[in-house]
Automatic annotation (TrEMBL), chain A:
Signal peptide coordinates: none
Protein name in the entry: Arabinosaccharide transport system permease protein
Subcellular localization(s) per the UniProt record: Cell membrane
Membrane disposition: Multi-pass membrane protein
Sequence intervals crossing the membrane: 27-49, 90-111, 123-143, 171-193, 225-245, 285-307
Gene Ontology CC terms, in alphabetical order: plasma membrane
Family, as annotated: Belongs to the binding-protein-dependent transport system permease family.
GO BP field: transmembrane transport
Domain ABC transmembrane type-1 per the UniProt entry, residue ranges: 84-300
UniProtKB/TrEMBL annotation, chain B:
Signal peptide range: 1-23
Protein name (database record): Arabinosaccharide transport system substrate-binding protein
Key word Signal present: yes
Location of region: Disordered: 31-50
Record Pfam families: SBP_bac_1
Keywords: Cell membrane, Lipoprotein, Membrane, Palmitate, Signal
Annotated Gene3D superfamilies: Periplasmic binding protein-like II
Coiled-coil positions: none
InterPro entries (UniProt xref): Bact_solute-bd_prot1, SBP
Automatic annotation (TrEMBL), chain C:
Protein name in the entry: Arabinosaccharide transport system permease protein
TM annotation in the entry: 12-35, 83-107, 114-135, 147-168, 189-212, 249-268
Source lineage: Bacteria, Bacillati, Bacillota, Bacilli, Bacillales
Major subcellular site: membrane
Subcellular location: Cell membrane
UniProt-listed Pfam families: BPD_transp_1
Length: 311, 452, 283
């Protein structure tokens, strides 16, 4: 809360020496990051500490008690492993699909010889606008096991038999990745496009003069300049992968999936915390998940030389 | 510079909002809920003199329930000019409503006066110090008049905490057209063993399965074992999933599927679009589901209008139970209510009174818990259900009135139900595994997990 | 058309590729729209389909929503609440988050890595585990059951901070020095020089944050208590819940929820295309 007091001071001296100091190069960065610091202190520090505490507690109405490491010991069970495995597999596949594909499509969309780009960009983005409830209804029907359902009719053109998509572990993972691609590809295209559009055209023009081909320019100019945004998309895809719950919720509803083929880490938190009313254990899973995602993204950022280059 | 000024003002705006909020907290931290306050105070002060109407908040997760409660509140106001109520019946999606209630009860703030709690979620709210109000004074006098198991579900240690909306009596829905084609009279199917013989005839003559079972749900196995007075959970929450009777029922169903007399329902169960499309097109000759499934037929399987009839379930042995009460929603009062007396009166009026129970059928098309109204002339009035299923609905129901055995819903139930739906049933019906092995293994895992 | 670039064939191939992709992307929504103008019984008879049967098509489902029946009497309240919350949230979120992201990208200062790590951490906290303490906190801060309760906790959002940081990394730093020589304050440099350069980023983020706010559900349904304060997703989700069996309202309501955000998108995508030329010319 102390940080907040600076501002009334700063404002009182508005436009005079004090603003200058506050706006000076030394203090300016702190002014810029102040909103985040305040938001963190006010809205996240207490809940986060509280969640960590709850992970060591049994939490029931009017009956909260510390139970040491019991919740953490309970983590070692098949459902937890299943959830972790499902989330990791999903993260892996979305990374594999949702980065190269949107990047390539964004480059095409940005190409000079592209026609009707606004229209195509809009149509690829529109799926992202649908809410969870709606997308859930549509995709439940698309991946229905009936012969006449859309997915089954589609594969029958290629001579395959009808499948029970939402009962098989591998097919349902495919369904999840298809759904994720449908919903998120447009968003990632948008990210890449916004970065592509800030690349100065002159760079390409001078490369033209040097006689570089289209593919050469792509590898020499586009890819390196897209690096910051690629790191960003990579990180949020990892995060999105481990945070995935709604897609699974959409396909199987709230009562879980056959043999837990759709159980994800956040789904597991939801099941234990809210459906079994075990908020303590739910927090334990959540804290563990937070640890895992932070670790994975830090590793990833380090491998990509994120911190090294800039500090 | 002007822009800098704007930026700073915006920032200060943000900070002051945040800062005043913290300051307010220090000044009077106990009694909060700022914007909702006027309504609450009004409700609290108006209770005693009863001059002003009392505002009651009610949460539910089915719009039709909200409409029913609103109707009952209007009826109540007609009969009680000195005790008017203003009912705010909020309809919030199933999972979110239960989560919201959980947070409100856990933090001691923000709960409604009245709340609809779905049967399988109910045990969650019996954990720790129960945050719901005991209803014995309104429930006990009515016990002789109602299906008692419908309040037992919502009780703990002899205290009643909720009253169900309906019985949920499981019945057989027969496609008369297909049965006639096979030349089998539904009334001849009295026992499950008849299903094996007569059902085979139906399957052979019509080319469609006689009956379907839920492939990843509990509405087939559970009612069937309830008929044998068995359950998946014992009276004290012990795991009884692998009771020999349960294994017997499941093995029998599996046999029917293997003999092509029965089929596994398309979709994960009967309450899915796949099943409804299948059944609507004459995909099977019969199904057994609770009474509330009727409106799935009327609303979602329009082509079967006039072709479906309702009959009791087959029993396991002569004289055995021919129904089971399945599913349900209990209306409860939370301990955060500021208008306890009038909440109780309204609950009793809406859920236990004769008027209320007649409306449960008229408004919702459900089987009311007060059995005397089943023979009331009001029940024979024609509506969309009688148009669809014929006029003998309540005749069937009255026949099985005393054949509904209670179910056990305890703290272990949510986990057990999930294991049944997601582990046991799919393994047997979708992947063809051996019932006994699957059930015993799942029961062991459940015992380990719940410490029972 | 007389350009010397060999544009024609690749251009045609690209159009074919994108046309195919667009069909895949839009097909489910097209099917949804068709279903929404037919009686629900059609859906149960034939499943999700794209039969164009003009005889059964009707706007009745849409009329049902506006009729005020079955709990939809607050429909316009919800619509208005959603619009207000989305507008306020998006504006504040973009302003504050771009500031933080820019600060993290452009300055070297003590604790920068720590702050950035915190940003990542906040992004990765599963909301489910902080929802109970955050709910208690909202009661204590008097923001329960108000639009501020929906907006404030998540308005300084880690995702856009990260995005703006990455975006700002690519901006030319020599502009800052030029600004300083002209006598701009640091905040002035940000607002006058850098913000215009980041327009494509603002364009993209406006759409995404508005989308997030418009469809946000988990937290608003907890923090908002009065029916008339609900947002559109909460109100509609109640009507749409599968336990209610009213697919008519469900499908038509879904189409109506998509519309405003679609218009916003169509409007803003021009805006951020134009951002390109600004950045391009100066860069």
């Amino acid at each position: 809360m102390n940080a907040g007091k600076q501002v009334p001071n700063g404002q009182r001296g508005g436009g005079t020496v004090k603003t200058r100091t506050l706006n000076g190069q030394k203090l300016a960065p702190y002014l810029f990051i102040l909103p985040f610091i305040l938001s963190f202190l006010i809205f996240f520090s207490y809940p986060l500490v509280n969640a960590v505490l709850m992970s060591f507690q049994r939490v029931l109405p009017g009956d909260v008690a510390f139970i040491g490491l019991d919740n953490y010991k309970r983590l070692l069970n098949p459902d937890f492993y299943k959830a972790l495995l499902n989330s990791t597999r999903y993260t892996f596949w979305t990374l594999l699909v949702l980065i190269p594909l949107p990047l390539l499509l964004a480059v095409f969309l940005n190409a000079k010889l592209m026609r009707a780009r606004n229209f195509f960009r809009a149509s690829l983005f529109i799926p992202a606008l649908t809410s969870i409830v709606v997308a859930g209804i549509i995709f439940r029907l698309i991946f229905s096991e009936l012969d006449g359902a859309i997915m089954n009719s589609f594969i029958s053109w290629f001579g395959f038999d009808s499948q029970k998509w939402l009962l098989s572990p591998s097919l349902s993972m495919l369904a999840l990745v298809v759904l994720a691609t449908w919903r998120w590809a447009g968003i990632n295209i948008l990210y890449f496009l916004s970065a592509l559009q800030s690349i100065p055209r002159e760079l390409y023009e001078s490369a033209d003069i040097d006689g570089a081909g289209t593919i050469g320019k792509f590898w020499k100019i586009t890819i390196p300049l897209l690096r910051p945004i690629t790191i960003y998309v990579f990180t949020i895809t990892i995060y999105g992968g481990y945070a995935m719950f709604t897609e699974s919720f959409m396909l199987w509803g709230s009562r879980g999936s056959p043999q837990n083929i759709g159980l994800t880490m956040v789904g597991y938190i939801y099941q234990q915390g809210f459906q079994y009313f075990d908020l303590g254990f739910g927090s334990t899973i959540g804290i563990t998940l937070l640890g895992i995602t932070l670790l994975v993204s830090m590793l990833q950022l380090n491998v990509l030389g994120f911190f090294k280059k800039e500090d | 510079m002007r822009k800098t000024g704007i930026a700073l003002t915006a920032l200060t705006l943000f900070l002051t909002t945040a800062l005043t909020a913290c300051g307010g907290n220090n000044n009077n931290g106990t009694n909060a809920s700022s914007t909702a306050a006027p309504a609450d105070t009004e409700a609290a002060t108006s209770e005693a003199p009863a001059a002003e109407p009392t505002k009651l908040t009610l949460w539910t997760f089915v719009q039709q329930h909200a409409d029913f409660y609103n109707f009952m509140a209007a009826e109540w106001n007609k009969g009680n000019p000195d005790q008017q109520i203003v009912l705010d019946a909020q309809n919030i999606p199933y999972d979110d409503m239960h989560t919201r209630l959980l947070l409100a009860l856990q933090s001691g703030e923000g709960a409604p006066d009245l709340v609809d709690i779905e049967q399988s979620k109910f045990p969650n709210y019996m954990k720790g110090n129960v945050q719901l109000v005991e209803l014995n004074d309104i429930v006990e006098p009515e016990i002789p008049n109602i299906v008692k198991s419908r309040v037992d579900i919502y009780s703990k240690d002899g205290k009643y905490y909720g009253v169900d909306l309906h019985v949920g009596a499981t019945v057989m829905y027969y496609n008369k057209e297909l049965m006639d084609k096979a030349g089998v009279n539904p009334d001849d199917i009295k026992l499950w063993s008849d299903v094996e013989t007569l059902g085979k005839t139906v399957a052979e003559k019509t080319g469609v399965p006689f009956i379907t079972f839920e492939g990843a749900g509990n509405w087939s196995w559970w009612p069937a074992i309830n008929q044998m007075k068995s359950d998946q959970v014992g009276p004290n929450g012990e795991i009884t999933v692998d009771d020999p009777r349960n294994i017997q029922a499941m093995s029998f169903f599996k046999k029917l599927v293997d003999e092509k007399i029965a089929a596994v329902s398309p979709g994960v169960g009967h309450d899915t679009p796949e099943y409804k499309a299948f059944m609507n097109a004459g995909g099977a000759a019969a199904v057994f589901m609770p009474f509330w499934f009727m409106n799935r037929f009327t609303d979602e399987m329009p082509d079967l209008k006039g072709k479906m009839i309702i009959r009791p379930m087959p029993a396991w042995e002569t004289g055995g139970n021919r129904s089971a009460g399945m599913g349900g929603t209990g209306l409860s009062i939370t301990n955060q209510t500021k208008s306890l007396e009038i909440s109780k009166k309204f609950l009793a009026y809406a859920k236990l009174s004769k008027e209320g129970n007649i409306q449960v059928w008229k408004q919702l098309g459900m089987d009311p818990i007060r059995t005397e109204v089943w023979s009331d002339p009001a029940m024979a009035e024609s509506n969309k259900f009688t148009d669809y299923f014929g006029t003998d609905i309540f005749a069937t129901l009255t026949e099985i009135k005393d054949e509904i055995y209670p179910v056990n819903i305890r703290e272990t139930s949510p986990k057990v139900f999930d294991a049944v739906r997601n582990e046991i049933v799919p393994k047997i019906f979708q992947f063809g595994e051996d019932p006994e092995t699957v059930i015993k293994k799942a029961a062991e895992a459940l015992r380990k997990d719940t410490g029972q | 058309m007389v350009e010397k670039r060999p544009g024609k064939l690749p251009s045609l191939l690209l159009i074919i590729l994108f046309a195919a992709l667009s069909v895949i992307a839009l097909f489910p929504l097209f099917a949804l729209f068709l279903a929404s103008v037919k009686p629900a019984s059609e859906l149960f008879r034939f499943g999700l389909n794209v039969r164009l049967d003009f005889d059964v098509m009707t706007w009745a489902n849409y009329k049902a929503i506006f009729s005020g029946k079955g709990g939809s009497q607050n429909f316009f309240d919800w619509y208005r609440n959603s619009l207000v919350i989305t507008a306020v949230f998006t504006f504040l979120c973009l302003f504050l988050s771009s500031m933080v992201g820019y600060g993290l990208a452009m300055y070297r200062f003590k604790g920068r890595t720590l702050v950035f790590t915190l940003v990542l951490a906040v992004m990765m906290i599963p909301v489910e585990i902080i929802i109970l303490p955050l709910y208690k906190l909202s009661i204590d801060l008097f923001i329960i059951d108000s639009i501020w309760g929906v907006i404030l906790p998540f308005v300084v959002a880690p995702l856009p901070i990260f995005f703006f940081r990455q975006f700002a990394m690519g901006l030319p730093k020599d502009f800052m020095d030029a600004g300083r020589i002209d006598g701009c304050t640091e905040m002035g440099i940000f607002l006058r020089i850098m913000v215009p350069l980041m327009l494509p980023a603002y364009g993209a983020m406006t759409i995404l944050q508005a989308l997030f706010s418009w469809n946000n559900f988990l937290w608003p349904v907890i923090v908002l208590r009065s029916t008339e304060k609900f947002t559109l997703p909460i109100g509609l989700a109640g009507l749409l819940s599968p336990t209610s069996n009213n697919y008519e309202v469900l499908l038509a309501g879904s189409i109506l929820t998509i519309l405003p955000i679609l218009l916003l998108f169509l409007f803003f995508q021009r805006f951020f295309i134009e951002g390109l030329t600004v950045g391009g010319v100066k860069g």
